[in-house]
Amino acid sequence: MFGLFLRGYDLAYRWLHGLLDPAAQVGEALRVELACYRGLALTLADGTKVRPGDRIGIIHLYNERVAALHGDGSETPTAGLKFRRAFVASLADLARRVGESDRYVGVKAFTAETILHQGTQRAGFEILPIPSATWSQLVAAYGRALLTRYHPLGRRRASRLRFSEARAIWISRTALLRRYAPERSVPSGTSS
């Protein structure tokens, strides 16, 4: 019964946040929602200031495609490498789109709230705490529920992350372009 509820909620969430729009699909592993930032003002490591009302991109995993990368569900290093490659390729696709598409004009930074934040620094993200402990716990519970639903190892995989705290990961537009589209020049004035 819970699985049916989760499936319905997930579909409704995707629809309400525009994640079913083909333009939201980025590469093999991601969907990107565009929104106005509603949190506290923050300054990222590269000096980018994100203030309430600024345009941001919210990164979501494309759950079905990511699950398919695991094939039969065996826990092999190959599955992790496939996911990492798909994630990095999707970030490169996002950088290309940011440089070419009007859809991303004015987007200051990209973020996600996730329990899967370990290792994202290697992909160029900053890991920050989620200011509300209650919200962090809800995000963590939802993340574990999604892992149970979509990951081939289901409950076993989610139970390993039982005590993981949700965190916010951030990458500025400038850092994304510098890291994933280095051949493009980064327009001045995009970091403040």
Task: Summarize this entry quickly.
The chain has one domain: Aminopeptidase (3-Layer(aba) Sandwich), CATH 3.40.630. Helix content is 41%, strand content 20%. It is built from six helices and eight strands; from the N terminus they run αβββββααββααβα.
3D architecture notes:
Helix content is about 40%, strand content about 20%. The chain is α+β, with helices and mostly antiparallel strands and about 190 residues long. It has one domain (about 1-180): Aminopeptidase (3-Layer(aba) Sandwich). The strands form two sheets. It has a six-stranded mixed β-sheet with strand order 1-2-5-6-8-7. It has a two-stranded antiparallel ribbon with strand order 3-4. Strand 1 and strand 2 (about 30-35) form a beta hairpin. Helix 3 (about 75-100) crosses helix 6 and helix 4 (about 135-150) runs antiparallel to helix 5. About 30% of the residues are buried.
What attributes characterize this protein structure?
192 residues, alpha+beta, Aminopeptidase, six-stranded mixed sheet, two-stranded antiparallel sheet, 20% strand, globular
Summarize the helices and strands and which ones pair or pack.
Elements: H1 2-16, E1 25-26, E2 30-36, E3 42-43, E4 49-50, E5 55-61, H2 63-69, H3 77-100, E6 107-114, E7 126-129, H4 133-150, H5 154-160, E8 167-172, H6 173-180
Parallel strand pairs: 5-6
Antiparallel strand pairs: 1-2, 2-5, 3-4, 6-8, 7-8
What is the radius of gyration?
16 Å
Q: State the total count of DSSP E strands.
A: 8
Give the strand line-up of the largest sheet.
Answer: 1-2-5-6-8-7
Category by helix and strand content: alpha+beta
Portion in helices: 40-55%
> Quick one: overall form?
globular
Approximate strand percentage: 15-25%
CATH class: Alpha Beta
- Number of distinct helices: 6
Q: End-to-end distance, in Å? A: 47 Å
Instruction: Say what the CATH topology is.
Output: Aminopeptidase
